[in-house]
Design goal:
Chains A, B: Homodimer and heterodimers. Two copies of one chain form a homodimer. Chain A is an all-alpha fold. Chain A has one domain. Chain A is built from five helices and no strands.
């Protein structure tokens, strides 16, 4: 049995899942609280993708707690395949959402100056914080995805 | 020696690299020929990312031709590590560029209606074709990246 950092059913895996869940929730909460987020479809997509990441990471954190309490081994082919596919799909969606929102942010702040013209209706600083948190959440999920893929390839 | 589809130094690998190169070049050429692409930073980022993908894939296509002609084996740890890291960095940059451009496209076409108001200065249909080609180029590069990572893990 391999013992990589972030493996499922390990304390490091649980810490990684909780961190993903916290950063994705923070990004979702900050974006939802920003005024005028519904003006851009990408920001709504970011909320949906972060919601998916929260649900996925929370579910896997619960699985890790269950495995740690009962000292179960999660390193079998079926479990690792499901976790790897789920991790990759969620990671690609999170990166897509974070990048599209970042692209829209650049249009709002630099290319069209909408932010400086209508700073009363659009809270651009809050959007930026949410996008930064989404990138951190994606990075943590990408680490999990690589670990899952490595474990699946070497099992 | 593993013989996966798309392995370096194989005919399937060469076909995959040439396809990546062609789609990335097409995306770059279409975006560069569109009027008003410099209005959005994301479109310039797409051109840079597709340029990087063209250079990377073209270089690896040449390496594949060299290995096929001299019947060299490229399956050693150092070559595979370098190819895997390069593929992953290029794939993440391509996806980021394609997604940010897609986000900007949605802002231009749906959220702000800039496209319908100024269709003389912005060729929005051309932008869409370029973004679609960039997604195809990214998908082909993602296939290579997974193959490299799998070969590296199982070598």
């Amino acid at each position: 049995m391999k013992s990589l950092f972030g493996s499922p059913g390990k304390v490091s895996g649980l810490v990684l899942r909780i961190s993903q869940c916290l950063f994705a929730s923070a990004s979702l909460a900050v974006m939802s609280s920003a005024s005028g987020f519904s003006t851009a479809t990408s920001f709504c997509f970011l909320i949906a993708a972060m919601g998916l990441e929260v649900l996925w990471s929370f579910g896997l954190a619960c699985l890790d707690i269950h495995a740690l309490r009962l000292k179960k081994d999660l390193h079998n082919h079926i479990v690792l395949s499901l976790l790897a596919i789920g991790d990759w799909v969620t990671a690609i969606l999170s990166l897509a959402a974070a990048c599209s929102s970042a692209g829209v942010m650049v249009v709002f702040m630099k290319d069209t100056n909408i932010c400086s013209r209508s700073h009363a209706t659009l809270s651009c600083d809050t959007f930026q914080i949410s996008v930064a948190l989404a990138f951190v959440a994606w990075f943590l999920l990408a680490v999990s995805s690589y670990v899952m893929f490595w474990l699946l390839a070497t099992i």
